[in-house]
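Moderator note: this is an archived Q&A kept for reference. The question asked for a predicted structure of one protein chain; the sequence and the answer are reproduced below.
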Amino acid sequence: MAIFKVFYQEDRSEVIIRENTHVQYIEAETEEQVRKSLADRPYNIEYVQKLDGAHLAYEEKSPAFKVETI
């Protein structure tokens, strides 16, 4: 399993504006699984990034780091 950082807007109909971007951490096998699991939510997904190594260690220190497993 891997940890993915998902950047998204809360409303699919909105244009992507950096200041309104939210982040969610998802544990899954692939980026495709992440996108499929979020398909039923009204999110406008901006970017899905796989985290590993030093980048993952850095993100784990954030108080907002809460992983959702699919």
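Archived answer notes: The chain is about 20% helix and 35% strand.
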